[in-house]
User: What shape does this take?
Amino acid sequence: MSKILVIAEHQCGQLNASTARTVSAARAVQPEAVEVLVLSDAPDAVAADAAKLEGVSRVLTVARAENAHPLAAILAPQIAKAAAGYSHVFLPSTTFGKDVAPRAAALLGVAQVSELMGVESAHTFTRPMYAGNAIVTVEADPAQTVVATVRTASWPAAGQAAGSAPVEALALEATLPTHTRFVELRQARSDRPDLQSARKVVSGGRGVGSKENFDIIYKLADKLGAAVGASRAAVDAGYCPNEMQVGQTGKIIAPELYMAIGISGAIQHLTGIKDAGTIVAINKDAEAPIFEVADLGLVGDLFKIIPELEQALG
Amino acid sequence: MKILVGYKRVVDYNVRIQVKPDGSGVVTDGVKLSANPFDDIALEEALRLHESGVADEVVIAGIGPANLGAHLRNGLGMGADRAIHVVSEEAVQPLTAARVFLKLIEKEQPGLVILGKQAIDDDSGQTGQMLAALWDRPQATFASKLEIADGKAKVTREVDAGLEVIEVDLPAVVTTDLRLNEPRFIKLTGIMKAKSKPLETMELASLGVESGDHLKNTHYAPPPKRSKGVMVKDAAELVAALKQKGLL
Assistant: This one.
């Protein structure tokens, strides 16, 4: 029988939404237990949140000052130690999980399944390759621990359980390196919804034309209560910061509504949105590839259409 | 300081990938192959560190079949000093690639290793982190800025929350993100010079590396297609359609 350890992602004492999605993927394996490991300097609040997730049978915490920031070189040795006794170790395929999971896998001497999107059996999974242009069935060696990052856009968030799973402190003997030090995190302050978990997303591309013009994207998003994303072209051109990039090498998202404005739709961008519920495309070029995947398309000048949209929204 | 750069050849990013009808893989016959874009960024960064005097040698390494030499010559043409070709007819998975690079590190003793954050064929994004673990050295993934001084690297990383800055002791493994730099084009003079630069080949089997290819890719399928949508004529019609879908 399988027993799965999910590594919690958290910031500022709060459980990240990606963890609940990772728990859903773990449950799809139909294991005898799903347990969550919280590595932090102060894990209590995060552990309490994780304990309320449906399907979680136990939460383990490791409180160490070194765990104040999610540094892979610090976390991976602890994860490798904690993995003993588990058949699978799952992390979300966010920058946190992508950074830490391969390091933990290598310490365990095992391969890693990246971007797990489907579970066929305890050791058979599907994952995307070639920017999502091939969906590959992967068989892992049952004799080894399966380390995987979970493509969060493919999984719903686990719901809230009626009660709370027990929380226990875990004693780990792990020597931690001092060669890697956190300096700072530069974060744009925003009251807008989080791009990765938002129900609605409005994205702008090269067609928006400048950083100043991007204001109309923010305005429309605010009117809709949406998060704001961008194509690689818009980020490269400096219209908006890197954390807004959606696509193969940026964020992979699955909102109920995705509005692509002034985005031509390169395959690398489309792979980041193909799980969206409804895709709306607004572009002046009727031949743009974005229209091939859009559920609703509107050809025209975005600077004329957006004000009209805002008016129609009332 | 010597810099070791991973230089992988992949299907060009502009190619529309087709899955073979029998599901045994993707069509690669006659398809354009190019350097992994993130590896070009890795090489560019190494060359800039060479030009600014921080590094004194840039060595590129690739794992692949006998005809990989031409690809490595391109890297030499871009400006690398030396190339190492680890010959393997079979594609290797990230853990094996990391074990191969560890062998090269033991031999070359670089002060810095720069790899792409992911290869755009298998999209695994693992090799750099695995290598750093096996080498027991720091990793700085998804780098968008790299500053080296006093045996340390200050690295700005593109993370979901924004930009994270970390400091690592050298030697270390850095993996590149898109905005670290814009790789230069290969000049004709570079191609001419590349012909006389050293390109060492070694058989993967001769390195004594344990295989880490524990995953079997048993079936390839095209992604589910989204059905063709409808075109609306103006903003009012769009809003009406969204309301009908219950999205507004």
Remarks:
- Chain B touches chain A through 82 residues (CB under 8 Å).
- The first strand of chain B starts at residue 2 and ends at 6.
